[in-house]
């Protein structure tokens, strides 16, 4: 039996789970770029170091974003990946495709690139992996002809992303697909032509289950919620109790604010204590529904650890009605970006800037009132301080 | 290291075409290189204003300025920036100004 060229990568093919090595080997049958990529990766595993050079600036006409330059630091060994640029293609909102659109996309990439794709990574975009500099413009032209556009990269507004929302989920409190599409179209300039201190991500989840993890992964999170009482169908609650779940231990006891009581016959919800986390609704979806007045909570500041540590987004608008054309939402985004762009240091994310200058300064700059829902860690020291002029001296 | 020949002189550049020996920059380099960044014809006064601004800032601070600062200091907007340099300020303008390749995140 012939000795494998990639013994270390071969290990990743073992087991029951899908393997990217298997996919790359399949692509390598017809793509010399994919073949060299495999061999370079094997060397990286052996040397315990990545063999891509740092950075690379390439692009297409009129755009400052959407293409990420990649060069091998061993072009002598792997000439077919000497240049191996990534193209980020804006995904259709909610990742709904027709098969012919996918076939078109793959045909374009077979023609111009390595044929390897990553659908979909953390950004949400269609990631097309590996093409040469001289193919960038023609590939972009073909993508445009097929109805696709590039997404955001670098210090730009990144491609907005949303959960499938009302497309497949009956618990959606906002039309996450429409919000995302509308913002994407409205902010084309900020996405294609980087102008910020660093990246800015917007993600839209239609309910607190937060299927796009907007709270952890975006500078500006829109999360669907409701006002008023959770709708209860007591008959269905009883049916759950009889057949499926232990309502006391699985629903009431696990409610984060303990806002529910179960007496064996009826479920009582103290809505004033509910934080609308969706736990009970998830467990008893036939019996409970979100309240009737729907909208979204707006949070800011989430990010993964790169320059500084990870942050979760925190609430700045407890409830906002979201209806087209989303003027209030866009105005808020504009005010926030303007303040961040003006005051942010290079590579400083929004959450880091708020931490550095203070929530009090941020709220005043974007014109939002301080409200109790903003308190991030209740019963610890408050982080919103009074302005000097708000403190009146006691006159005797 | 790749080499390019412009107006009869040879220059060392990186794989993206950024000048490697920054002290070799001269105006002929910028003019002769402009067509590779989708700029047709002669560089205008507006091009030079931006190129000189970038060079002065780089000499003073050792990095390229942030986009907002460019726009504010020169009184131009993003649209104008891309009209002047269709491949963008980071790629087109910095390259012609002979700055080292800007680093940024992907």
Order of helices and strands of chain A: HHHEEHEEHEHHEHEEHHEEHEEEHHH
Shape of chain A: globular
Low-confidence runs of chain A: none
Helix content of chain B: 40-55%
- Work out the number of β strands of chain A: 13
Oligomeric nature of the chains? heterodimer
Query: Could you report the average pLDDT of chain B, rounded to the nearest whole number?
Result: 92
| Largest sheet geometry of chain B | 2 strands, antiparallel
Largest interface: A-B, 33 and 24 residues
Given as residue ranges, the uncertain stretches of chain B (5+ residues, pLDDT < 50) are none
User: Measured on Cα atoms, how large is the radius of gyration of chain A?
Assistant: 25 Å
- Secondary structure tally: strands of chain B: 2
Query: What overall form of chain B do the CA principal axes indicate?
Result: globular
Number of domains of chain B: 1
User: What integer value in Å does the Rg of chain B equal?
Assistant: 13 Å
CATH class of chain B: Mainly Alpha
Chain-wise SSE layout:
The complex is a heterodimer of chains A (396) and B (106).
Chain A: H1 7-10, H2 20-28, H3 32-47, E1 67-68, E2 85-89, H4 99-112, E3 113-118, E4 126-131, H5 136-145, E5 161-162, H6 176-186, H7 188-192, E6 202-205, H8 214-217, E7 220-227, E8 231-232, H9 234-243, H10 247-252, E9 260-262, E10 267-269, H11 279-283, E11 288-289, E12 293-300, E13 314-320, H12 327-343, H13 350-357, H14 359-366
Parallel strand pairs in A: 5-6, 6-7
Antiparallel strand pairs in A: 1-2, 2-4, 3-4, 7-12, 8-11, 9-10, 12-13
Helix pairs in contact in A: 2-3, 4-5
Chain B: E1 3-6, E2 9-12, H1 27-33, H2 45-61, H3 67-74, H4 78-84, H5 89-96
Antiparallel strand pairs in B: 1-2
């Amino acid at each position: 039996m012939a000795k494998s060229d990639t013994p270390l990568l071969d290990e990743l093919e073992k087991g029951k789970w899908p393997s990217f090595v298997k996919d790359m080997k399949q692509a390598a049958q017809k793509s010399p770029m994919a073949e060299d990529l495999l061999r370079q990766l094997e060397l990286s595993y052996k040397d315990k170091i990545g063999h891509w050079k740092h950075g690379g600036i390439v692009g297409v006409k009129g755009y400052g974003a959407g293409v990420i330059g990649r060069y091998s630091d061993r072009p002598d060994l792997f000439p077919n990946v000497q240049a191996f640029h990534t193209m980020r293609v804006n995904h259709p909102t909610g990742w709904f495709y027709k098969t012919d659109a996918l076939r078109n996309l793959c045909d374009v990439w077979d023609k111009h690139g390595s044929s390897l794709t990553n659908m979909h990574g953390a950004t949400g975009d269609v990631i097309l992996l590996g093409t040469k500099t001289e193919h960038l413009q023609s590939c972009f032209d073909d993508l445009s002809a097929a109805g696709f556009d590039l997404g955001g990269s670098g210090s730009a507004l990144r491609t907005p992303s949303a959960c499938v929302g009302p497309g497949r989920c009956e618990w959606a409190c906002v039309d996450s697909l429409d919000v995302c599409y509308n913002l994407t179209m409205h902010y084309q300039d900020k996405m294609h032509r980087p102008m910020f201190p660093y990246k800015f991500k917007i993600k839209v989840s239609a309910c607190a289950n937060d299927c796009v993890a907007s709270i952890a992964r975006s500078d500006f999170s829109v999360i669907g919620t409701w006002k008023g009482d959770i709708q209860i169908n007591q008959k269905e609650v009883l049916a759950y109790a009889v057949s499926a779940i232990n309502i006391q231990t699985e629903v009431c006891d696990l409610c984060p604010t303990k806002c529910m009581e179960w007496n064996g016959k009826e479920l009582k919800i103290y809505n004033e204590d509910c934080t609308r986390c969706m736990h009970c609704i998830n467990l008893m979806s036939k019996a409970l529904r979100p309240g009737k007045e729907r909208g979204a909570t707006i949070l800011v500041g989430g990010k993964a650890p790169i320059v500084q540590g990870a942050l979760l987004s925190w609430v700045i608008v407890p409830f906002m009605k979201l209806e087209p054309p989303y003027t209030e939402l866009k105005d808020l985004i504009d005010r926030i970006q303007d303040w961040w762009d003006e005051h942010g240091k290079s590579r400083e994310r929004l959450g880091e800037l708020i931490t550095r200058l203070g929530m009090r300064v941020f709220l005043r700059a974007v014109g939002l009132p301080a409200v109790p829902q903003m308190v991030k860690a209740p019963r610890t020291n408050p982080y919103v301080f009074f302005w000097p002029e708000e403190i009146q001296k006691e006159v005797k | 290291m790749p080499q390019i020949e412009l107006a009869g002189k040879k220059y060392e550049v990186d794989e993206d075409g950024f000048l490697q020996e920054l002290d070799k920059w001269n105006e002929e380099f910028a003019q002769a290189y402009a067509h590779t960044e989708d700029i047709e014809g002669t560089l205008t006064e507006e091009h030079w204003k931006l190129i000189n601004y970038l060079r002065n800032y780089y000499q003073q601070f050792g990095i390229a300025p942030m986009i907002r600062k460019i726009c504010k200091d020169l009184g131009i907007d993003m649209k104008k920036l891309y009209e002047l340099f269709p491949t963008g300020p980071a790629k087109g303008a910095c390259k012609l100004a002979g700055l080292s390749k800007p680093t940024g995140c992907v």
